[in-house]
Amino acid sequence: MRIVLMGAPGSGKGTQSQRLVEYFGIPQISTGDLLRSAVARGTEYGMRAKAAMDAGLLVVDEIVLGIFGERLAEPDTANGFILDGFPRNIAQAQALSKLLGTLKTPLDAVVLFEVNYEEIIKRISGRRSCQTCGRVFNVYSAPAGSAPHCDKCDDKPVLVQRKDDEEETVRMRLEVYEQQTRPLAKFYRDQGLLRTIDAQDSVEQVTARLIATLDSLPAAKPLRNARSKAS
Ligand code: AMP
Known about the structure:
The structure is a single chain. The chain has helices at 13-24, 31-41, 44-55, 61-72, 90-103, 117-125, 167-181, 183-189, 203-215, 220-230, and strands spanning 2-6, 28-30, 81-84, 109-114, 127-129, 136-138, 194-198. By secondary structure, it is an alpha/beta fold. The strands form two sheets. A five-stranded parallel β-sheet has the order 2-3-1-4-7, with helices on both faces. A two-stranded antiparallel sheet has the order 5-6. Strand 5 and strand 6 (136-138) form a beta hairpin. Helix 1 (13-24) crosses helix 9 (203-215) and helix 2 (31-41) crosses helix 3 (44-55). The chain is globular and about 40 Å long. The mean pLDDT is 91. Residues 9, 31-32, 35, 52-53, 56-59, 64, 85-88, 92, 164, 173 line the site of adenosine monophosphate.
């Protein structure tokens, strides 16, 4: 199953992708994570992407498509993938259609997460991530009194706030979303691929809604069969 999760920064795409990875057994491809990793490793792509990322702007398509193409070529994408944060403008969406068309593996659905901006600002200000495993946490939804440490890594590293989650940069990222990414909803609606879900509620409620939407797709059937054979 090949799906795209789209929505404003902070709408929950990353968190829900992690849930879908577990449920469907297909990988998440987050261009944001790939770019952050390239920056941390000091690769050429990373060095060229850093300034745009720090400013909350989109990284140029050439870099994003390069980094995405490399990831898509890895063998774990054979049964499908969850795209998180890609495509983010019409040119990227067209390039993706072309690439998947050549591979004869078209998208099955694009899910748009709807969340109001007040909630988004609150979520982003509470967002922290683990620099070791990349998992995303939220100080508002963490159990009361728990320390801001990653409970998935053995050495329990302290969680950190992403630089581009600071308020001013978030405002810029929301503006970029409205101008460049939101128009993709029409692009995919016109192709009959768009599903919209209300992503305002708790993580569990949104996961249930998302899984119900995706489980009804024909492409979910082989993954369901593989899961029941394994259990
Ligand atoms: P994210 O983690 O998806 O919010 O992405 C963090 C930052 O990485 C964005 O604000 C952009 O600067 C950059 N980025 C991630 N994905 C893309 C993309 N598909 N196109 C352009 N820039 C991207």
